[in-house]
Amino acid sequence: MRRRLPWVLLGVALAVMTVGLVFGEYRSVLEKAVTVCLDCIGIG
Amino acid sequence: MAKPYRARKPRDRRAWYQAAFALGLNGWIPSWFKGEIFQGGVKGICVPALNCYSCPSALGACPVGALQTAFAGLRFNLSVAEKKFGLYVAGFLAAVGSAVGRMPCGWVCPFGFLQELIYKVRTPKLRIPHAATYFRYAVLAVMVVALPLLVVDQFGYGETWFCKWICPAGTIEAGIPLMLLKADLRPLIGFMYHWKVGLLVLFLGWFVFSQRPFCRTVCPLGAFWGLFNKVSLFRMAVDDEKCTLCDKCHKDCPVEIKIYEQANSPDCVRCLRCVSSCKFGAISYEFLGKREVSPDLRADKAAARRDAFPS
To answer: CA–CA separation, B135 vs B131, rounded Å?
Structure first.
């Protein structure tokens, strides 16, 4: 079981990531990333 | 004739990798002169490091900023039945963690690299008490998860608390360069900007005296990935029979851990310096079933064999 655990975790993580991509979360991250984040630079 | 065997100093090429990643993650060169942030379609890809996406030349998204944004917008998204829960970012973080644990901290993160460079300044050095390293979990739980989720405006939007109040990587990579390059932003400078620059100066001063203090005591990304160190595919191992407790690995460690006490400590950034510095081959790492000891030790043994049996 101990040897399988990292593979199980990796599989679950990739599945979760895929579901997020299917729900269009990539676009949300992109929209945030391509605009200047005022909080990050200290004027928010 | 074979060259006589001579023990060599451990090689450490990690700084080259760190420099390459720092440049690679911030490789949009036109922005170095214009101050316009990169807006290409690949910027939605999370990078395995604390690298601010508002850095003009950043090519990817900071996972900590993206995760906070997801949590900050979660209540609004639920109220309008929008299926956006931050699964992409959370899955990315967990995938990296379960594959290699905290290894990107030691090899990829530009802010970790900066700390290691500044620490080379020759001054008396200060050790960080181990208890202080637990503070990073509080930063992760409170600033990255709880506050963005719970403190919301009338529309249900929260804020990115860690980015806003703490993140010195954002100040040095984005705040200062954008203020220098874009004159129209300068009138907006106020208390928050001065707070963040002051905090950055404090951290930069601390980097001179302590080894990777931000990574060890504050960084929420390191806190999260550190939780995977014990269960990741990449694992460190110490052979108790070979270990002489000489403490060389502890002295060379950039995060001051005793790997012979806990091989997969959540504090370990997996820089592998201990593997190179152990002259007894007691420390090894394992990935996908393949076990490796120090490449130097292997080379030294091969050289010694060549001397003993010249062809």
So the answer is: 8
